[in-house]
Design brief:
mainly alpha; Arc Repressor Mutant, subunit A; three-stranded antiparallel β-sheet
Length: 146
Amino acid sequence: MFRFLWVSRIYRRRMALFCEKKYDLELNLLLILLAASDSHLQQGILARNLGINKNAMLFLIDNLEIRRLIKRIANPDNRREKIIECTPEGRHIVAEIKTNYPEIVRWGLYPLTDAQIEQFGLLLAKIIEGESSAKPPLALLHRKKT
C-alpha cells in the first residue's frame, strides 16, 4: 500500500509541476477547467466529484474566473445556483491538453514504457470499476459485535 501511495504522490507532484510551468495554473485549477469543459456543472457537484471542499472550490472558481478561463452562469432551472462554463480561452487550454494527453501521461509516469502505461491504466480501471469476480481478500466492512 505504501508503494501505491508513494506513486500517487510522485505523479501528483509531477502533474502539479507540469501545470505550473506550462499553464501557470495549480493542478486543482486545471482539474476544474477540464471538468467544466465536458459539461455545464453546478459548483457543488463539481466540488464533490473532485473531492474539493465547497469553500475551497469557491476560491478556486473565483481564481479561474479572474483569469477569464471560466464563467459562472445562472442555472435556468434554479436561479440560486450557478453553473460553470469554459470561456474560449479555457476551451483552448483544454483542447491543447487533450491533444497532448499521451505525452503528458508519459512524462508523469516516467520511466514506464507505453505498453506498461497502457497495462497500468487497465489495472487502475479494473480497481475503479470493481469488475473482479473474485471476492476481496479481507472484508471491507467490519461488523460490530453485539
